[in-house]
Amino acid sequence: MKGQSYQSHLQMAMIYFLVAAILGLLLRFYPMLGFSFNYRFVVHGHSHIALLGWVYVALTTLLHFCFLEKKKSSRTYKRIFWCTQATLIGMLLTFPFQGYALLSIVFSTLFLIVSYVYAYHFWKNIDPKYEQSKGLKCAKAALIYMMISSLGPWALGAIMNSLGPQSIWYRLAIYFYLHFQYNGWMILAVVGIFLFVCEQHGLEIPKKPFTHFFLNFNLGIVFTFFLSTLWTKPSFGFYTLAGLGAVAQLYAFACLWGMIKNLFHGLPLTKLQTLLIKLVVAMGLIKMVLQLLTVLPYFSTMAATYLDFTIGYLHLTFLGVISMALFFFMDYFELLRISTKSFSWYFLGFILTETLIFYKGIAAWQGWVIFDGQATLLSWTSVLIAISIAMMLIKNRSKT
Fold it and tell me: Domain boundaries in the chain?
């Protein structure tokens, strides 16, 4: 498949990112401008397009670009890609207007089926020269977690019919899906692609540290799911398992950093690419530390009580760790260029919105008076993110 096709596919992913950002702006301005739409329905549309439009499409495109035999798999991959787009457009046209209803559930179900087809296609068309790749090992595990995460949505229908949306099992099914999406599928896929980059430049990834990383990271993925159950105030055993998972992931992160910190000098990176990697590592560390904190009952209760902490954490993961890693890969492989100017606006918007979101959570927790105009300022700083994504798309408009 020509590089031009990969460019157009990643541009499509970026368009979904822009759409998700615009839906986010509607949610931010909702209380000020008196919009009449259903807030929860638009939240569903925003989250589905961000995760499945932007991140999923970008990651699956990059995984195909890196690991698969192009001549053998390109025609089937294109069919899978366009079937995926049909389901995404269907979700975009239904979720914001009707929430979870017949049509939106049909399209999201079809998306899950197509994602299974992609995983099967990936497995059957791996380029033989990468069979021993440590990056490929991470990519395979990532796809397994993607399929495991789908057990959450499959369970939702049965839970809604038997127990109702107010049941704790309803929330747990959603948390199960989200956890294995971003902690398993997305982050492990990002790690796999980065290790592929290192391997392509002949940089040796030590076997023993990689084994320690891989085993502990996978152990951490499974056990940190119990962090998502602590809001139910379960027995002490759940806290213990969650703590083991958080410690295992932090140790795995240390192993990963130990492996890659000496490899940077062997990669032909621009200043922006070096900055992006450093930011991803720094925010990944913050994410791991926050996970570890929520093992403590006091902090797990606080995170469940004050929604802004949860929103801030999810944005840190998706807009920070995962999205900036995707920017790095797209720019590094020269599939979609990220200019310093457009990224500067993105990063400014990211930092300001995260600061304001966490400030609101801390203010509620500590009983501070929230300053006048906090919501307005948050709304306008969110505009910077949408503008920066639009700038990236405009910059690459001729590379179709």
Answer: 1-128
